[in-house]
Write a structure and sequence with these properties.
The structure holds two protein chains of two kinds. Chain A is 0% helix and 49% strand. Chain A contains no helices and eleven strands. In chain A, strands 2, 4, 5, 6, 9, 10 and 11 form a seven-stranded mixed beta sheet that branches. Chain A has a four-stranded antiparallel beta sheet with strand order 1-3-8-7, with no helix packed on it. Chain A is globular. Chain B is mainly beta. Chain B contains no helices and twelve strands. In chain B, strands 2, 5, 6, 10, 11 and 12 form a six-stranded mixed beta sheet that branches. In chain B, strands 3-9-8-7 form a four-stranded antiparallel beta sheet, with no helix packed on it. Chain B has a two-stranded antiparallel ribbon with strand order 1-4. Classes of the chains: A mainly beta, B mainly beta. At the A-B interface, strand 4, strand 5, strand 9 and strand 10 of A face strand 6, strand 10 and strand 11 of B.
Chain lengths: 115, 114
């Protein structure tokens, strides 16, 4: 399977703990995005990488959130001191710059539940 | 900033009946338009997109959407739905120039009634 892979698929954590999610994009894709989707809402943009550079961060991404993409391959999203409001589906997407606005391919997401 | 409005959160439709899922957008600059579909327990998949050219775009499974610039709409239609079309449908926009991040609507859950 050469699609976007996200791990873990589900994560339950206690409030105050740190969690880290991983995204493996499609191998030739240089653009990577993180989105957050809460119940009854559409996905909301969190951050964007082009290769290893993090070029844009949403104001939704508080200082408890950090994302990295070392070597421009996989990416991690870490949430420190989790809060119940962080409970959501975290989606990763990747695309390649090959013509006007190419398709973004989404992973199946990591569902985070903070208890 | 751009925004997307999907007024219908749920749409029940009888099998083989036609359906229209509404999408309106707001943006001060030109945008690209997309419909994504999310089947139960699966990730988002691109259904169709409008970049330029013909305002009517079609998907391989019988859906079509028409870009209407004057009404800032991109409604999704299918003349005859099937049980397998049961899913959540998201309309989205991105800027013509930029990092291609998507701004999504809140989604419409399409339920097909046998």
């Amino acid at each position: 399977d050469t699609g976007v892979s996200q791990n873990p698929r589900h994560k339950i954590t206690k409030r105050g703990q740190n969690v880290t999610f991983r995204c493996d994009p499609i191998s030739e894709h240089n653009r990577l995005y993180w989105y957050r989707q809460t119940l009854g809402q559409g996905p909301e943009f969190l951050t964007y990488f082009q290769n290893e550079a993090q070029l844009e961060k949403s104001r939704l991404l508080s200082d408890r959130f950090s994302a990295e993409r070392p070597k421009g391959s996989f990416s991690t999203l870490e949430i420190q001191r989790t809060e119940q409001g962080d409970s959501a589906m975290y989606l990763c997407a990747s695309s390649s710059r090959d013509g006007p606005n190419t398709e973004a391919f989404f992973g199946q997401g990591t569902r985070l539940t903070v208890v | 900033a751009q925004s997307v409005t999907q007024l219908d959160s749920q749409v029940p439709v009888f099998e083989e009946a036609p359906v229209e899922l509404r999408c309106n957008y707001s943006s001060s600059v030109s945008v690209y338009l997309f419909w994504y579909v999310q089947y139960p327990n699966q990730g988002l998949q691109l259904l169709l997109k409008y970049l330029s050219g013909s305002t009517l775009v079609e998907s391989i499974n019988g859906f079509e959407a028409e870009f209407n610039k004057s009404q800032t709409s991109f409604h999704l239609r299918k003349p005859s739905v099937h049980i397998s079309d049961t899913a959540e449908y998201f309309c989205a926009v991105s800027l013509l120039y930029g990092n291609e991040k998507l701004t999504f609507g809140t989604g419409t859950r399409l339920t097909i009634i046998p």
